[in-house]
Amino acid sequence: MSNKLMLSIGFGNFVVMSEVRAIIQPNSAPIKRFIKQKFNDGKVIDATMGKKLRAVVVLSSNHVVLSGISVSSLISRSEDE
């Protein structure tokens, strides 16, 4: 098994860093529509653990991961790797 760098998206959840295409703020209406569309397509993974949605992680597989950790924290964590 190869060693892949993982990005902690909070609450014990991780994504493979090489699969991350974007980390974006969830506040705008277009992003909310994007999340809803992906949800209807069955491509949303909710990793907020019931916390407030603070970041949207878009993966190369066209899946969307919802995180309760802020965008700035996720960017900082990715740069530390």
Give the strand tally. 6
Mean pLDDT: 95
Q: What strand order characterises the main sheet?
A: 3-5-6-4
The topology string of helices and strands comes to EEEHEEEH
Q: Regions with pLDDT < 50 over 5+ consecutive residues?
A: none
Kindly, what is the distance between the CA atoms of the first and last residues, rounded to a whole number of angstroms? 19 Å
What percent of residues are in strands? Answer: 25-35%
| Spatial shape | globular
State the helix count: 2
Q: Give the tally of structural domains.
A: 1
Helical proportion? Answer: 25-40%
Estimated radius of gyration: 12 Å
Q: Which structural class best describes the helix and strand composition?
A: alpha+beta
Helix-strand layout with pairing:
Layout: E1 6-10, E2 13-16, E3 20-24, H1 29-40, E4 44-47, E5 55-59, E6 64-67, H2 71-80
Parallel strand pairs: 4-6
Antiparallel strand pairs: 1-2, 3-5, 5-6
